[in-house]
Write a structure and sequence with these properties.
heterodimer; A: nine-stranded antiparallel beta sheet; 32 strands; B: alpha+beta; 2 domains; four-stranded antiparallel beta sheet; 10 strands; about 15% strand; disordered N terminus; disordered C terminus
Chain lengths: ~1250, ~375
């Protein structure tokens, strides 16, 4: 049970308790029936909300439960159509293509001859690439017609758990042979079957035991910091209530004691007996509780929920947080922590896919120690980046018929290249919407322009190998260059899908289906978007094609064409172009590689396959048992895949064991992180190369380091020829490991490690992962906002540092502490040293006004030691002084522990942002988890509280929405407390004049209405819509974000100051009318009516002082409340003659409204009540304006002056006079130290102190400006 | 330059936009509406409370409040009021013996005479009040101890009063009409006023007993059961409240229209006072049509039929003579309050003016960089 619901229940108990108290005759203050009204209203609201949600859930449940599916009936001996709800464990279920799997099925049979079933798991983890599942081997005969009756094994599987990537089971055949099966044979409920006609499975888990259901643990609940504080204040309210009631009881006791005899106004009970003073004051205590119950702001919780719904509505509707490319808005998954967005102090960010695009681009490679820089590719990429900006203009240019673009002999290719790239980029942009969702393919990945030297080298190698092969068939040496590209193409888990066999998407992209038809009439073309580019490319292509056909090097020509032709299947242009080309493409087999589409689990793999393809090594097909690769020569090689040693984060590499179709040798291709590979290098690649092997390794390492410095992701490729004997012995081990049910992962991994030894290095690749747009800008802004940004990445130190510089996390002038040590001792000493250094720096009087620009770079191993319990404190303190921290080589677990340590030790608000499954821990550990719906599936998004699509959205989300949500909610809550206290205290003061007997001078109906209707809408509207500072200013001046950090606006003192103000106001509202009516013939309700009216005005005008921006909505709601009050009260007092017995407000308000005294009282009381607050605001704003007020001044300048102003101010900061990290207030406002509204806690004054120093600097700045 | 890029956009929209439009048609874009409301860009007035902006408000408040205050003060001072305490606490007090010997059940009325002198003459209509102190008519249980339906003439409520009236609901097995503690404790002193002219003869001053209750109370809220004819029949089968001497239909022997629940003294009493010290309108001394003052200055005699005990709870009884103005009775408080608040606002305005001059100029220069 979450705490919120608990509190809800507590609130309800409080309500019920009060209601019951009301039914006790001796204590009741009101008519018991009437006392039930507020609880009924609130419960009805909640019930309505819940009922609506339940109804929707019920409907979707019913729909799901009644989905048809085919279950094998033993009676009918065939599959008959039943409903999902009929699925039981042990049934055989047949799933047809594009159907959703109704339960967790152990795959027994598929229509695919290889026993493969493709599934799409987007319902579970959002990943849209196809995954293969294999029939459980050896249990059934995979004949075309599967007979469930023939299945006679006993299936034993583990207990249901929620791990989607893990499953263990074995089937015991009648002959006691055990066959193991894992996740690769399990079809999970919720997945969709694709590319497979039908599949039959055995239900192992059904209903709530399925893995997807076990994963589905309801909406996340987090309690915001503000709410935690709020609860504390509610407890203070309870204490206050207690004392007020005690006061009432005591007062009543003393009053009774002071009476000499029984006066006529003391009413005895029905048998004429009067309670003793003690007893009646005891009762009075409870009466007071009922009377003053509003002091506990139960309705506040309902209001907060409403406000948050409103805030989320506005966040999700923000057009700036909408991403065109993916057509996605920001998603708010956690509904109740919006205000925490305004209090973040630490951001922990993943690198890949978060700061970067996670669109991998093959940039460079190093083969056998030789570097191929791919300059052209680099140029192309640079141009592409540019073209994004100039796109519109460029498109307008007339395409010119051009010379062959790429050829080995033309040197000056740049211009054409540009032209072409703009064209093709345009195309992809047009189709972008459909494309981006399908797989990892952007123009960047798919189009790799080969390095010329390398191409020559390959064609040479190939011809030589061909000749050598034809010359002597026993030749063992394939050229390492060819091997390198083979390994690029083979060593992966990329699934190939044909464009023609494009899987159907259930939702969304139906329009792309239409274009799948290659026969799409050409006459349609001019209407479609790609008209220009289409013609354009075809013009280009034709001469090119002709040339390649005519020239001897067919291969090369094809290579050049492939990248452009290679388009996403959904892409209209690509397909249409294919159809255009069909006639000319006579030199190729029917299956052109044009309409291949690769679906990879990680974008790196896709990038590598595309790179290999660019060099002519086209991956054509992949089944569990074979890989088909087309060589540059056009020859198709089918490699038999013997085993795939999948990637795991421990080994950091993957291998694939194939049998070379030509040499019939067992070859193991391994790729992995350089440090995971380098130590496994063994015998040289070939004997004739033995001498230089060492050198190759060293050269490659050197290149790798260079790549890493450039921020590229590096991978090493190796090859190993495994002898028959070695393979056989290993295979036995492997089988044993696979069949094991205990400890299987470990065993499987061990076998993998056994085989991956003595590798020979082929080369390395460098893949670029570009920074997302405006990442440096966003990081700068966040840092100016006083947020420390940490980057936690699994990448290499060099890569990470490089990216750190690129995104301005690290600055050139920074002092970078690099912590990378092997043992704890050095680690300790480094931490101590650094800490001393930092402390000394801080203590140095000369450095009072500067903070050291220290950055910490730490690697995973060291981090482990630093986070150990004894070093933890020191590390955290060091980190606190650092401007930025970069952790590299960290594991997901470390990520979350870093977040936890910082969060707990420093007591700060943390935010974690990431996009991959490896960030899930971190996202869950932080106060706010933000998922980026990027390339790596949806796990991060699923675990997150907010899901955004670009890193840059973080800026507006935090700086604008965070600030707004926080200030709005904080002010709303404070106001709510104030409102209740101010109103209830009127009753309290009255007790002093009615012998503490619990009389109310306001009609109870009106009291209820006062809280339920007259004054409830304005604060909610205030909480949803108030806008203290415009978004432009908040974005332009990130420093304003600091106001929400730490204690923020909702301080403890704020609460009490407001309470005091509420007391004062209630005193004014009570005693001014009291003194005015003293001694007159006023009756109770004639006295209460002006009080009620006055407090309505006071409360609403108080809100008006707090409202920062008045819109029409504000006016209507506040005006409406006043009108509603008068209409309802007048109607009530005109109609109700005897309806509410003791109070009887008949004709009171009309009579009062005919009396000028009423208006005079309303006027003066409201003024007196609000004067202090108003004056205080004015004085503070004039004498010592807070940064927020200064920003408001800025806001009122006309937009051009304002933007100029902000720009000037920013450029000045960037100009180096003040380091960019410096916290600074806008120089505009005063030079005074901004003084907070209330006494500050030390942490806040720290910040303020900094601001003070900055103001000194800003003074210089101004002088500078005036010069 | 601008034109060309604009053109380009047009072209772009025209040609390449076609497919994306098609896409948008097939798949509903999730793009949020770009409206001022959803983007939180509604035109807003953003006042900043600084000395400069609010200065006028303070002066205006000051300038409005001070005249109002003076007006209120003057009109309050013009109200003439005379009070006399006749409780009889002191031995010297004429009502001392009546107060001492009181009991609710005594049948012989105790009369006392209190002479007093008016130093000023009362010009307009004079309102005669009785005032009670330390009488908690606002006690919660007391306030509730009534039955409004019964008072409204409801027959069933007459014979079966509400439970709220307990223990004054029935007596001797009969329902009490009017029931409840409020009615039971009806103020029952009779006050008469005599003017003693210069030659020593005392002339009774005519006291109007009509028009002292709210019109709505008299005509809507309070009604006699079964109309106003023959009240003794209408109230047959009910008992009088315990403390009363006469039944409800004999409250005013002189005027049959003023009997039963619509007796104005009774209605006034039933409108429970807000504060423990209160006054209630008793009689009105109408201004005579001729020019002589309603109550000329001189000697008067107040004759009290002393029935109502207040000493048991340390209460006091007063007789009040007062003229009233548009703002009600005499109460200088509001006038003083207005004057004070107006002065404070004016003072604050001056302070803010100084502050404005000291701080705001700098603010302005800093705001707009050159």
């Amino acid at each position: 049970m979450n705490l919120f619901e608990q509190f809800h229940r507590l609130a309800n108990i409080y309500f019920v308790g009060l209601a019951i108290l009301n039914f006790v005759p001796v204590v009741n203050a009101f008519e018991p029936e009437i006392a039930l009204i507020p609880i009924c209203v609130i419960m009805c609201l909640t019930a309505l909300k819940d009922a609506w949600e339940d109804f929707r859930r019920y409907q979707s449940d019913r729909k799901l439960n009644n989905t048809p599916c085919f279950i094998y009936s033993r009676k009918a001996k065939k599959f008959i159509e039943r409903r999902w709800k009929d699925v039981r464990v042990g049934d055989f279920v047949k799933v047809i293509c594009n159907e959703i799997v109704p339960a967790d099925l152990l795959l027994l049979h598929t229509s695919d001859p290889n026993g493969v079933c493709h599934i799409e798991t987007s319902n579970l983890d959002g990943e849209t690439n196809l995954k293969q599942r294999r029939v459980m081997s050896g249990v059934c005969i995979s004949d075309p017609d599967f007979e469930p009756e023939s299945f006679n094994s006993l299936v034993v599987c583990e207990k249901p758990n929620n791990n989607l990537n893990h499953f263990k089971c074995y089937a015991e055949k009648p002959d006691k042979e055990k066959v193991g099966a894992g996740i690769e044979s399990l079809l999970l409920r919720g997945c969709t079957v694709r590319n497979t006609d039908h599949a039959v499975g055995f239900v192992v888990y059904a209903g709530h035991e399925t893995k997807s259901m076990l994963n589905n643990n309801g909406p996340r609940y987090k309690r915001s910091k503000l709410e935690r504080k709020l609860n504390k204040d509610v407890i203070f309210c309870v204490i206050l209530l207690f004392f007020m009631c005690l006061n009432g009881a005591l007062g009543h006791f003393l009053w009774l004691q002071a009476l000499p005899t029984v006066p006529p106004y003391l009413v005895p009970d029905s048998n004429g007996h009067l309670d003793s003073p003690g007893l009646s004051s005891f009762y009075m205590f409870f009466t007071m509780i009922i009377l003053l119950q509003v002091l506990i702001p139960i309705s506040l919780y309902v209001s907060i929920e409403l406000v948050k719904i409103g805030q989320i509505f506005f966040i999700t509707n923000d057009i700036d947080l909408y991403d065109e490319a993916t057509d996605s808005r920001i998603q708010c998954k956690a509904l109740n922590i919006t205000e925490d967005l305004g209090q973040i102090e630490y951001i922990f960010s993943d690198k890949t896919g978060t700061l970067t695009e996670n669109k991998m681009v093959f940039r460079r490679c190093s083969i056998m120690g030789t570097e191929y820089p791919h300059k052209e590719n680099a140029v192309r990429l640079a141009v592409l980046e540019e073209s994004e900006a100039e796109e519109n203009v460029l498109f307008n240019k007339r395409p010119q018929p051009v010379k062959p673009r790429w050829s080995l002999d033309t040197e000056d290719t740049n211009f054409e290249d540009r032209q072409h790239q703009h064209g093709s980029h345009r195309k992809s942009k047009v189709a972008g919407n459909a494309q981006s969702n399908v797989a990892f393919s952007s123009p960047l990945e798919t189009e790799v322009i080969p390095d010329r030297k390398l191409l020559q080298r390959i064609s040479r190698a190939e011809s030589s190998s061909r000749s050598s092969r034809s010359g002597s068939s026993s030749s063992q040496n394939i050229d390492p260059y060819l091997d390198f590209f083979l390994s690029l193409a083979i060593c992966n888990t990329v699934v190939v899908s044909m464009a023609t066999a494009q899987r159907q998407r259930v939702n969304g992209f139906s329009h792309s289906l239409q274009s799948n038809n290659p026969m799409d009439p050409l006459s349609n073309m001019p209407k479609k978007s790609g008209y220009f580019s289409n013609i354009f490319t075809s013009w280009q292509r034709k001469p090119n094609r002709n040339r390649t056909i005519s020239e001897d090097s067919v291969v090369e020509g094809d290579i050049f064409n492939l990248p452009e032709i290679m388009e996403e299947p959904g892409d209209i242009n690509g397909l249409r172009r294919c159809s255009l080309y069909a006639p000319t493409n006579s030199d190729k087999p029917a299956t052109t590689s044009d309409n291949l589409s690769y679906e990879a689990e990680s974008p790196d793999e896709a990038a590598l396959v595309y790179a290999a393809k660019a060099y002519g090594f086209t991956l054509l097909a992949r089944t569990p048992d074979s890989v088909t690769v087309r060589l540059p020569s056009g020859e198709d090689l089918v490699f038999e895949v013997l085993d795939t040693l999948t990637f795991d984060s421990f080994r950091k590499r993957m291998s694939i064991l194939v049998r070379d179709p030509i040499t019939k040798k067992y070859v193991l291709y391994t790729k992995g992180a350089d440090y995971a590979i380098m130590e496994l290098l063994g015998t040289p690649y070939a004997e004739n190369l033995r001498g230089i092997q060492k050198k190759i390794a060293a050269d490659t390492q050197h290149h790798l380091d260079c790549y890493a410095k450039d921020g590229l992701r590096t991978l090493c490729f190796t090859k190993k020829v495994v002898s028959d004997k070695e393979y056989k012995s290993w295979f036995v081990n492997r089988q044993r490991a696979l069949a094991a049910i205990e400890n299987r992962e470990q065993l499987v991994m061990d076998t993998a490690v056994q085989l991956e030894t003595n590798l020979c290095l082929l080369g390395a690749t460098g893949i670029e992962d570009r920074l997302q747009e405006s990442v440096p800008d966003t990081i700068m802004a966040l840092r100016e906002a006083g947020i420390q940004v940490w980057v936690l990445t699994g990448d290499k130190l060099e890569t990470a540092v490089n990216i750190g510089y690129a995104c301005r996390l690290l600055e050139d002038e920074d002092l970078v502490i690099n912590m990378s040590c092997k043992n704890k001792l050095t680690c300790t000493s480094i931490v101590d040293c650094a800490l001393q250094e930092v402390r000394r720096y801080n203590e140095d009087p000369r450095n009072v006004d500067t903070t050291p620009d220290i950055s910490l770079v730490i690697d995973g191993l060291t981090l482990n030691m630093a986070l150990s319990s004894d070093l933890q404190d020191r590390f955290v303190e060091l980190a606190k002084h650092c401007r930025s921290v970069l952790c590299c080589r960290v594991t997901p677990l470390q990520k979350s522990s870093v977040v936890k340590v910082v969060r707990e030790k420093l007591k700060v608000m943390t935010l974690a942002v990431g996009d991959g499954a490896n960030d899930v821990n971190m996202i869950q550990a932080a106060d706010i988890g933000i998922g980026i719906s990027g390339q790596e599936g949806m796990q991060a998004v699923m675990a997150s509280d907010f899901a955004i699509s670009r890193f840059k959205h973080l800026k507006k989300l935090l700086l604008v929405h965070g600030h707004w949500c926080y200030t709005r909610l904080a002010n709303m809550i404070i106001y709510f407390f104030y409102k209740n206290v101010a109103y209830v205290n009127l009753l309290f003061w009255y007790q002093f004049f009615c012998g503490f007997s619990g009389t109310t001078m306001i009609d109870y109906w009106l009291m209820i209405f006062f809280n339920l209707f007259f004054t409830s809408a304005p604060p909610i509207m205030f909480g949803i819509m108030d806008r203290d500072i415009s978004a432009e200013i908040l974005l332009g001046v990130p420093e304003l974000y600091r106001t929400g950090q730490g204690e923020g606006e909702y301080k403890f003192s704020t609460f009490w100051v407001n309470m005091l103000d509420a007391f004062y106001q209630s005193l004014a509202c009570f005693f001014i009318p009291y003194l005015a009516y003293q001694g007159s013939d006023i009756d109770i309700f004639s006295f209460g009516t002006p009080l009620n009216t006055i407090s309505l005005f006071t409360i609403l005008l108080h809100l008006s002082i707090e409202i920062k921006a008045w819109t029409a909505v504000h006016l209507i709601i506040i005006g409406g409340s006043v009108v509603l009050y008068f209409v309802v009260t007048l109607a009530y007092s005109a109609v109700c003659v005897t309806c509410n017995p003791p109070s009887n407000p008949y004709w009171i308000l009309p009579r009062q409204m005919a009396d000028p005294m009423f208006y005079l009282l309303c006027l003066i009381t409201t003024v007196v009540a609000l004067l202090p607050r108003y004056t205080f605001h004015v004085l503070r704003n004039s004498i010592a304006p807070s940064p927020l007020v200064q920003a408001k001044h800025l806001d009122q300048l006309d937009p051009s002056t304002r933007s100029e102003y902000i720009k000037e101010w920013r450029s000045f900061r960037g100009g180096g006079q003040v380091k960019s990290s410096r916290l600074s207030t806008p120089p505009s406002p005063t030079l005074e130290t901004p003084v907070g509204m209330y006494p500050q806690s030390p942490t806040v004054s720290d910040i303020m102190g900094d601001e003070f120093t900055l103001n000194v600097i800003s003074e210089n700045y101004q002088r500078h400006l005036h010069l | 330059m601008m034109a060309s890029s604009y053109n380009a956009k047009e072209e772009d929209g025209h040609h390449s936009g076609a497919s994306s439009h098609g896409a948008a048609g097939a798949v509903k874009s999730k793009k949020p509406d770009n409206t001022a409301f959803k983007q939180q860009r509604l035109p807003a007035w953003q006042p900043i409370l600084t000395a400069g902006t609010v200065l006028p408000a303070f002066f205006v408040i000051g300038l409005i409040f001070i005249p109002i205050g003076i007006g209120l003060f003057v009109s309050s001072n013009n109200i003439k009021e005379f009070q006399i305490d006749y409780t009889g606490v002191d031995i010297s007090s004429p009502c001392y013996s009546c107060a001492k010997n009181f009991s609710w059940n005594s049948t012989t009325p105790c009369v006392c005479y209190v002479p007093f002198t008016l130093n000023q003459s009362f010009e307009s209509n004079v309102f005669m009040y009785y005032g009670l102190s330390n009488f908690y008519q606002n006690h919660r249980r007391y306030v509730k101890s009534r039955d409004d339906s019964q008072l409204n003439g409801d027959r069933s409520a007459l014979t079966n009063p509400s439970k709220e009236c307990e223990p004054y609901r029935t007596s001797d097995g009969l329902p009490i009409a009017p029931c409840g503690a409020i009615a039971n404790s009806l103020f029952n002193d009779t006050l008469e006023l005599y003017h003693i002219d210069s030659n020593g003869t005392s002339n009774p001053i005519p006291l109007a007993k009509k028009g002292i209750a709210w019109w709505t109370d008299k005509h809507v809220k309070f009604r006699n059961p079964g109309g106003n004819n023959n009240l003794s029949v209408a109230f047959h089968g009910t008992n009088k409240p315990v403390n009363w001497r006469n039944p409800v239909y004999e409250l005013d022997p002189s005027d049959p229209e003023n009997n039963g629940f619509i007796n104005e003294d009774f209605i006034v009493w039933m409108r429970t006072a807000a504060l423990p010290t209160f006054r209630k309108l008793y009689r009105i001394i109408q201004k005579k049509p001729n020019t002589t003052p309603t109550l000329p200055s001189g000697k008067y005699l107040l004759t009290i039929t002393y029935n109502y005990p207040v000493l048991s709870f340390d209460g006091r009884k007063r007789m009040i003579l007062s003229t009233i103005s548009w703002m009600g009775g005499k109460n200088p408080f509001l006038g003083i309050a207005y004057i004070t608040v107006g002065s404070i606002c004016f003072f604050l305005g001056v302070v803010l003016l100084i502050i404005h001059h000291k701080y705001d100029t700098r603010n302005n220069s800093a705001d707009i960089p050159n």
